[in-house]
Amino acid sequence: MAYITLLLPLLIEPLDKLGFRNIKKGVFYGFILSLPLIVFSKNVFWENVNTIPQVFAEEVFFRGYLQEKLNESLGKEPSIFLTSILFAIPHVIVEPSIISCLTFFPSVIFGYSLYYTKSIATPTILHYSSNTFFLSNKELLSYLL
């Protein structure tokens, strides 16, 4: 239920500033960019549906709110990279491991996807697909690291 706190920007910011625009474009690019992750997720894409509220809340807060606010003062790249560092920190706190530190890298991709599509739908779909891919390939990834 911690994700409810992450949704507080919905109460204080206009929805279009949080990335709630270009939804069709965002969904289209989200699924297109997620295809490789979906294909290699061992048919568990729909088994992870209960994580959608958490993924959505994280994207609203980190990409829609924080990245957009930082972008106003820092610019595109610094805001994406700083947001990605801040995104990785709670993952490392909850699950201290090298794999948790690696959440920085998909977060950068999520950040660029929001920047280019201007839609919160794209990073949300990518985030969900990335989580599903990771969960279905966790043994392989932990073996490699």
From TrEMBL:
Keywords: Hydrolase, Membrane, Metalloprotease, Protease, Transmembrane, Transmembrane helix. Residues 50-132 form the CAAX prenyl protease 2/Lysostaphin resistance protein A-like domain. Coiled coil: none annotated. Pfam families: Rce1-like. The keyword Oxidoreductase does not apply. It comes from the Bacteria. The chain crosses the membrane at residues 27-46, 80-105. The keyword Transmembrane helix applies. Signal peptide: none annotated. InterPro entries: Rce1/LyrA-like_dom. GO terms for molecular function: metallopeptidase activity. PANTHER family: CAAX AMINO TERMINAL PROTEASE, CAAX AMINO TERMINAL PROTEASE FAMILY PROTEIN. This is CPBP family intramembrane metalloprotease.
